[in-house]
Amino acid sequence: MSGGYTLSGGDYDRYDRRLVEITVADGRDAGSVLLEEGLAQPWPNSGNPWCR
């Protein structure tokens, strides 16, 4: 993220939270990067009790 990023989108969910897509400077989706690096898990997730 320190190399820069862009936000796109801007819809809101049912709790009035803003929904955006984050793209890092090299063009990759930030969520995909987090998954690849093992720092996030796909949703829905049933493998961890803390993530229900």
Task: Provide an overview of this structure.
The chain has 52 residues and is α+β, with helices and mostly antiparallel strands. The protein has a domain at 5-36. Helices cover 13% and strands 29% of the residues. It has one helix and two strands; from the N terminus they run E-E-H. It has one helix at residues 30-36, and strands at residues 5-12, 18-24. The longest helix is centred in the middle third of the chain and has 7 residues, at 30-36.
Number of strands: 2
Oligomer: single chain
Order of helices and strands: EEH
Shape: flat
As a percent range, the share of helical residues equals: 10-25%
What's the average pLDDT? 88
- How many DSSP H or I helices? 1
Strand order of the largest sheet: 1-2
Rg over alpha carbons: 13 Å
Q: What are the low-pLDDT stretches, counting only 5+ consecutive residues below 50?
A: none
Structural class: alpha+beta
Could you give the distance between the termini?
27 Å
Question: Percent of residues in beta strands?
Answer: 25-35%
Largest sheet composition: 2 strands, antiparallel
Would you kindly provide a brief summary of this structure?
With 52 residues, the protein is an alpha+beta fold.
